[in-house]
Every structure is written in structure tokens, then in C-alpha cells.
Amino acid sequence: MKELINSIRIFLIFRFYKLGVILERISNKGFALDIFSSSFQNNPYKTYSKMRTINPIYHSKPTFLRWVTKMDLVQEMIRDDRFSVDDRKFPIAKLRRNELRRDGRDIMLDQFENPSILKLDPPDHSRIRKLVSYGFTNRYIKSLETEINDTINQCLDKTHNLESFDLMNVLAKPLPAIVIAKMMGLPDSDLNQFQIWSENLLKEVGGIGSSVKKRKLARDAYEDLIRYFEKIIIERKDNPGDDFIGKLILAEEEGDKLNVKEMYGTCLLLLIAGHETTTRLVGNGLFALLNHPDQFECLKEDHSKIPNAVEEMLRYEPPVHATVRFANDNMTYRNRDYKRGTPFAISIAGANRDPEANQDPDVFNVLRENVKHVSFGYGPHMCIGANLARIETRLVFERLLERFPNMKLGNKNPEWQKNFIFRGFENLELKV
Ligand code: HEM
């Protein structure tokens, strides 16, 4: 019965949304943002560009969001403490709490009240971020290089004698998961399971047309992951060890640094952020490169250009397309009034393609000078794993170009995942 009611609710919301899109199109001389349409899914950049021209803070009523698509505004808003990431503070939280309660999701509700740093403002954000950063010093990340390289080689060894393979399954999915699991001290034998959980979890975050079935999968995965970390942390209490989880356990024991629920949220965030994004960067970057054979040749001949190419891949096809901020109070911003709790979609992908930030933004150019992007965010919430992701991606491209100098796309039109926040491929077939 609960499932039926949920299905009807999702159906009605979707109909209501579609009606909103029609009305927006009528009032907007034929233009509307439709995040569920296949044209947006295949090429969202055209839409971002149109929105930027109409209004760099574009009000899309069907999505209930103001979309910010200009680089200077995106950077300004992310750094401005009049905007918050903490949705617990605003009226929208009541809807979420009620909805989770109705769905019997006690664990998710508990975590909603004790979120990870991604959803915390200062001072809690600063307190926990400091602890997490200890695990990501430049020196430590650099020391992982040889091991990451070995892991890439081991993954690619599996393609020996093959004429074609799926890059996502062979390398882009396993590599970042193996690396983050090692950093956190999670057993290799659990890799497969938490990759499935984290893929399922993202089906609700920006999942286009999320069905009741997908939503259940996502929520079950979320709760399973929290139970998983709870078990690991209890098991390791007496012997914390020197890895990331060990350090969090010691911090929790000191009393005022971290509580146990914050610890679960931190582990969950690191596991998901640590691999879902890098996986997509590898796939998106290689797709862009193989569509530009001259640039492929250029990188093949000179590996020293790969780090700049990685920045251009991040700019051109970012794995995370948007993040959200809320107006902390009733406010006037850039001559417009906003009510407390107004949500803004900070469009990372839109800002990266802003012609005022990068010349000819729709051109992919691995030799571009001063690549400007916010693909790792900006300001206080800037990605903690950026250096790790850069090293992993650079090494992946070095090894791929070395081993498969004649590789081509097996399918010229691979399907983009149906998600308006995370952009990437499920599969990417290569002929080698
Ligand atoms: C290509 C790979 C990656 C991309 C594109 C990416 C992107 C981002 C973005 C856009 C944010 C900021 C979100 C916001 O402001 O709302 C962020 C935050 C974060 N990322 Fe990443 N990320 C990547 C890899 C990683 C890795 C490998 C890790 C860890 C192993 C990681 C851990 C984090 C954490 C902990 C935060 C939260 C920081 C905070 O809220 O203070 N990320 N990432």
C-alpha cells in the first residue's frame, strides 16, 4: 500500500513538473529548462548557456530552483556566508523529515539531523573538516602514487589479448574504489558490495525520473552503508589502526572533536565522494579525448601535457554538475529579493562554460592556458580529495596512452546516465 501511494505521489509530482515546464515555455518565448528531457541529458550545456543569457540567476519554477550559471557569481555565492549548505535550518527540512518518517527511514532521519561536512556550516563544518583534512595531506597523497600506478596496471592486465573492453568496468569504477577503501582501511573483500551500494545510493541524488523502485534501492543502500560503518567502527574500537577510520575513532574518543553519528556521515561521504566522482572523470575525459584525435596524438607524444589535459577534462565535462546553497535569511542579492531558505542550484558546469571565464568555452582544448573551472567546488567546501583525484586521473591517462596507442571508441554515442547532478557513463566500450 505504501509503495502504491508513493508511486501515485511521484506520478503526480512528475505531471505537475511537466505542466510547469509547458507554462515556462509559453512565458519564455519557447525556452524552458527541462532537466528530465533527453535533449538536456545529452547536451545540458546549450541549456546552461541559454539560461545564462536570459538571466545568470535563472528562476526555474518547475524545479523550485534559481540556477546560477556565471563563473563570477558562482564563486561569489559559494564564498558568501549569507548562503548556507545546511538544509536542516529551512522550511524545506520539514518536508524531508515528514517524508523520511512516512517511509520508515529512521537511520536516514538520524543522519539527516547529523549530516556530513558537505551539509554543515561553520563552526561544525570547520571542526570536522579539520579532522578530515589530516587524512589528505599533500605528502600522504603523493606517497600513494606507486600503489595507485600498480593498481591501474593490475586492472589493465585483465585486458591482455582482448580487442575491446568496457573502460568503466575494467578500470574507471574499480580503481578509485580500491584506493579509497585502502585509505579508509576497509577490507578488499567488501569492495564489490559497497560499489553496488554507492551506485544505488546515487539513484536518488539527481536521478532523473527516479521511480519508487529506484528510490527504495537508494534508501536501502544508504541504510546498509551506515550499518556497515557502524559494524566496522565497533569492531575496530579496541584496535583502531593507523588508517583513516582508525584516526576518526581516536578523535571520537577524545570527546569534543567528533560524535559517533558524525563519524558515520564522514565515512559515507568519503566513500561516495572518493570514488563516484573520479570514476566519471576518467570516463568523461577519455570520451572527450577520443572525440578529438589530434589532441589524443598530442598527449600520446608528450605525457607532460596530461596534467593540463586533466584540468580541461574537468572543465569541459565535470563529473559534478551542480551543488545547492540556500539563502540564510530574507535578503536582497544583486538587486533581487529572496526569502529565507530559497534554494539556488550552483551550476558548476554552467560556470565552466561561461565565455567570460574561458574563451571559446565549448571547445575542448587540452593545451588551453589558464583553464578556469570550479569542478572541485570553491571556497570553504572546496573538495578535499582534489589532489588524489588529479593523481589518479593523470596516472590513468599515462598508462592508457602507453598501452593502447590506437584505441578508439567502440560506440560513438554511449548513453549518459540519467542524472542531472552527476554526469557520466555506465559503460564506455573501447576498441584497442
Ligand atoms: C574528479 C573527482 C572529484 C570531483 C569532481 C569532486 C567534486 C567535489 C565538489 C564539487 C565538492 C564541493 C561541493 C559543494 O561545495 O557543495 C566536493 C567536496 C568534497 N569532496 Fe570531492 N570531488 C572529487 C573527488 C573526491 C575525492 C577523491 C575525495 C576523497 C577521497 C573527495 C572528497 C570530498 C569531500 C570530503 C568534500 C566535502 C568538503 C567540504 O564540504 O568541506 N572528493 N568535491
Explain this structure to me?
The chain has 432 residues and is α+β, with helices and mostly antiparallel strands. It has a single domain (2-45, 87-310, 384-431), classed as Cytochrome p450 (Orthogonal Bundle), CATH 1.10.630. Helices cover 55% and strands 8% of the residues. It has 19 helices and ten strands. Strands 1-2-8-5-3 form a five-stranded mixed beta sheet, with helices on both faces. The longest helix is centred in the middle third of the chain and has 31 residues, at 260-290. The chain is globular, with a radius of gyration of 22 Å. Residues 117-118, 129, 132, 180, 269-270, 273-274, 277-278, 281, 319-320, 323, 348, 375-377, 381, 383-385, 388-389 line the site of protoporphyrin IX containing FE (HEM).
Strand order of the largest sheet: 1-2-8-5-3
Q: What molecules are bound to this protein?
A: protoporphyrin IX containing FE
Which CATH architecture is right? Orthogonal Bundle
Largest beta sheet, briefly? 5 strands, mixed
Between the first and last Cα atoms, what is the distance in angstroms? 51 Å
Radius of gyration: 22 Å
* Rounded mean pLDDT score: 92
The string of secondary-structure elements, in order, is HHHEEHEHHHHHEHHHHHHHHEEEEHHEE
Name of the CATH first level: Mainly Alpha
Helix count, DSSP H or I runs of 4 or more residues = 19
Helix content range: 40-55%
Which word captures the global form? globular
CATH homologous superfamily grouping: Cytochrome P450
Oligomer: single chain
Number of domains: 1
The third-level CATH topology is: Cytochrome p450
Question: Regions with pLDDT < 50 over 5+ consecutive residues?
Answer: none
The overall strand count is 10
User: β content, as a range?
Assistant: 5-15%
